[in-house]
Amino acid sequence: MEGDLVQMGAYIGAGLACLGMGGAGIGVGHVAGNYLAGALRNPSAAPGQTAFLFIGIAFAEALGIFSFLVALLLMFAV
Amino acid sequence: MAENGIDIRPMDQFVVKPLFGGDVVNWYTPTNVTLWMALAVLAATALMVYGSRGRAVIPSRAQSVAEMTYSFIYKMVQDVAGRDAVRFFPYIMTVFLFVMMANLLGLIPFAFTTTSHIAVTAVLALTVFISVTALGFILHGTKFLKLFWVDSAPLPLRPVLALIELISYFVRPVSHSIRLAGAMMAGHAVAKVFAGFAAALGAAFFLPILAVTALYALELLVAVIQAYVFTILTCVYLKDALHPAH
Q: How far is the CA of B105 from the CAs of A25, A74, B40, B243, in angstroms?
């Protein structure tokens, strides 16, 4: 009984960790949207900044990855 | 779920199995991971060797793919990590080609995606992390620790920033490895789930198949972009080791 309760809590927590995706989505969208806004204002400067676009996206995405990590830990390590 | 006629097991494709029967996996057992890693190395080697064998002035298709990949990564190392990072270009090129080939080979139906396992990507990320940290200390000695001590910040803030920088430094290999493994695993599992719908829907089977086709195109893009992101982060970390001062 107690084990079931822990299991249930772990599954609920793993599901709730999916909300982290929303945060990562906002972050990635913000980076990409601002890049596009800047690129449309000054198209000639855009190609030189694509590396920073991807670095920014990767850093924004990292926080979403941590929620995935929490979900993984809840599913397999608790 | 089997009683509804839908029996989808999207995670079955990630099971590590010995190649030659049995189900005991020791560290020396050749498994499907071994096979597909070897194929990824073979594909990367084949692209570069086959591509550069002609050395034609007007390149063939294979030669232009090889040349474009080479100059793309070379330029990225120069731009992101600096001109003096070019001596580490062979390693970065190897990492990029291996990750890209492993990702792309995993998209072949019934293939095994080695990069979907955190064990594989963690080794790649830890290699980068440890060698970059060692490199920083070898090149700069204790001055490498200035990476954590932000001189441009006001003095009372510096210990706080140092703590944050320290945590974010040690979290790097975690995010570096799980990003790649997570993206690969999620993409393949989604494709498998949609393919399972096709079997369950009967007459309307073409709808999920259209969805899988679109997903597959997206996955091709993701496979290359994740390899690119993995490599560009390697370059960013390398830049921190070469020029630790902010």
A: 28, 31, 7, 36
